[in-house]
Amino acid sequence: MATKDWLDNHAKVTAYLDFSLYASLEKWMKTHKIKKASQALTIILEHYLEGNIPIEVMPENLELEVKQLKVKATEIDGLEAAVAEQQREFNDEINSLRTEIDGLRQALINAGLSSLRERVEDIPRGKIKFSYSDHDAKQGLTKTDLCERININGSQINQWATMLNLDPDEYLFELTGWKKPLQARRYFPVLENEQKQAAKIS
How far is the C-alpha of 159 from the C-alpha of 107, rounded, in Å? Predict the structure, then answer.
């Protein structure tokens, strides 16, 4: 039995429907399994006036779509898990590849250092004997002439000096004992006692 509060918050509506409209209402009630006409009319009014669609009168095709959406949501969850697993595998492969690259880089560096050591060991060091005249000593020799006397070209002198971390003129002096004075263009022999004195100072 309805309470006084419920009656105070609800309005009673009485209506007379023609038989064709009532027949349509009964058919609609049967489709949605609603037994009372008052309940059916309330649902219809809520739907059309307030935009509410109770779940019990939701169209069957819409219910099917909701079920399909739930299935798709489940599939998406499964797909996300699969993608996450593939991402982890991809990251593992990337890390493995980086490790291989680092190992290869280090191997190349080691090979290069070994080759460089061998090349440095093959670089001539110390004084190379060659003949020259008193005129050569007085007039001096150009770098090209001096290199020809020891049978080494100037480019090779520069390259070897770089590998030894020396100035080309310093390296050429080590090989020949000839030095180029400041601002001069030619090289002149340095006497043995002068070389010893220079070595003591350095």
Answer: 25
For the four alpha carbons of 45, 47, 53 and 59, in that order, the dihedral sign comes to: positive
CA distance 37 to 43: 10
- Of 63, 75, 59, 173, which is closest to residue 127 (Cα–Cα)? 173
In sign, the C-alpha dihedral spanning 49, 52, 58, 64 is: positive
DSSP secondary structure letter of residue 39: H
In the chain, the DSSP E strands lie at 178-179, 188-189
Q: Rounded distance, CA 115 to CA 109, Å? A: 10
Q: Is the pLDDT of residue 100 over 90?
A: no
Surface-to-core class of residue 174, CB atoms within 10 Å of its CB (0-12 exposed, 13-18 middle, 19+ buried): middle
Helix axes 154-163, 60-121, angle to 10 degrees: 110
Pair 141, 187: CB distance under 8 Å: yes
Which has more pLDDT, 197 or 19? 19
